[in-house]
Design brief:
By secondary structure, the protein is an all-alpha fold. It contains 18 helices and two strands. The two termini are about 40 Å apart. This is Sodium/glutamate symporter.
Length: about 400
């Protein structure tokens, strides 16, 4: 078999072309935009399929330069940390902390269910974790990050990336499907009092309004934001290597240290009144990093290996979907107040509990367009889904790994 190797520059070109292909298809195929399938996922899966056909029928294998992969992943998680403003906690009030506890419980259940089913089927327990909270509540970015960990020593799970991407994509679609019906069921079953004002705009959450106030992205501001990300990468990688050398028997993936560095840096600068992090700019850098990272990860997956794991993956994901529905109805709704806000929160939880915060926002927007605005839900869900879930999820995942 002939192998064609792509260097750094040609690999970067392919990654960008994958994103452009995904953006083009998303703009033309309504079902893709309806369920908020990321452009990197659409373009990456198609690219992986084309590369597979080239290998099967043309006897040609493509090899890409992976030097950008880890820095892009770490930059994304660093941006999540830099956006974690602890002063925002007071906006959510008591219900925010209740919701945090609720979603943390689901993380544990998702992993327990995933590992339990994978073990019962005689499969690697890592399949259960990857199809558990890693991708269900973590999404594509967290899935690909942990897949890199599981693909290396001491786990050496060759199909980790394929499982993670399949599970994350499935969760993204299902999360967008079940959210609205769950909220509607709760509203009708409990005859909830709704605001009834359907004319109020719900397109921009309250928590994002300040982020979109007029503040120009300039050369200096861009360099400042880039410097913050660079510090997070430098410190995070150094701390991860240092702890690994100590051989304490307990460690976290490097991206977790970068995320925590971002959290500490952001809130320290704010408390000392040294620098105000430009959220919109940092978010933009993080989103671009994630898109490029996912483009590389998805165009590199082995679809043949994924097909061999289809049965155990689907079995786990089917049960995860049922768990999410029942958890949203009987736990999220009840503990968050059993009112209209709780119903909207349940719809949002279905969104990011199965894959991504944008899906959660779309779910809540759909409910609010029919029944009226829930300001509480639009404050709490972005705060929890954007960064707090990643911090708690990392701790939960590492706890389960310590059991094996």
């Amino acid at each position: 078999m002939q192998t064609i190797s792509f260097d750094f520059y040609s690999t970067l070109v392919v990654m960008v072309l994958v994103l452009l292909l995904g953006a083009f298809l998303n703009s033309r195929i309504k079902v893709l935009s309806k369920y908020n399938i990321p452009e990197a996922v659409v373009g990456g899966i198609i690219a992986a399929s084309l590369f597979l056909l080239l290998r099967v029928f043309g006897d040609i294998k493509l090899s890409f330069d992976g030097s950008l992969k880890d820095p892009l992943m770490l930059a994304f998680f660093s941006s999540i940390g830099l956006l974690a403003d602890f002063s925002s906690l007071k906006k959510g009030g008591k219900k925010l902390f209740i919701f945090l506890v609720v979603i943390s419980v689901l993380l544990v259940l998702q992993n327990a269910v995933g590992i339990g089913i994978a073990t019962a089927l005689g499969e690697n327990h890592l399949i259960g974790l990857l199809a558990g909270s890693i991708t269900m509540s973590g999404g594509h970015g967290t899935g690909a990050a942990w897949a890199s960990v599981f693909g290396a020593e001491p786990y050496s799970f060759a199909g980790a990336l394929e499982v993670a991407m399949a599970a994350a994509t499935f969760g993204l679609v299902i999360g967008g499907i079940i959210g609205g019906p769950v909220a509607t069921y709760l509203i009708k079953k409990h005859n909830l009092k709704t605001p009834g004002d359907k004319t109020e705009s719900v397109h921009i959450p309250i928590t994002e309004i300040e982020a979109y106030k007029e503040r120009k992205i300039t050369q200096n501001s861009f360099i400042e934001s880039l410097a913050l990300l660079a510090i997070c990468l430098l410190v995070g990688v150094y701390v991860a290597d240092f702890i690994k050398r100590l051989e304490l028997g307990f460690t976290l993936p490097t991206f977790v240290y970068c995320l925590f560095t971002g959290v500490i840096l952001r809130n320290s600068l704010s408390a000392l009144k040294i620098h105000e992090v430009f959220d919109r700019e940092v978010g933009l850098l993080g989103n671009v990093s994630l898109a490029l990272f996912l483009a590389f990860a998805l165009m590199s997956i082995d679809l043949v290996q994924l097909a061999n794991l289809a049965l155990p993956i689907f079995s786990v994901l089917f049960v995860q979907s049922v768990l999410m529905v029942f958890f949203a109805i009987f736990v999220t709704f009840r503990f968050c107040g059993k009112d209209y806000d709780a119903a909207v929160l349940s719809a949002g939880h279905c969104g990011f509990g199965m894959g991504a915060t944008p899906t959660a926002m779309v779910n809540m927007q759909a409910v609010c367009k029919n029944y009226g605005m829930s300001h509480t839900a639009f404050i709490i869900v972005p705060l929890c889904g954007a960064f707090f879930i990643d911090i708690v999820n990392a701790i939960v995942i590492n706890g389960f790994l310590s059991l094996f």
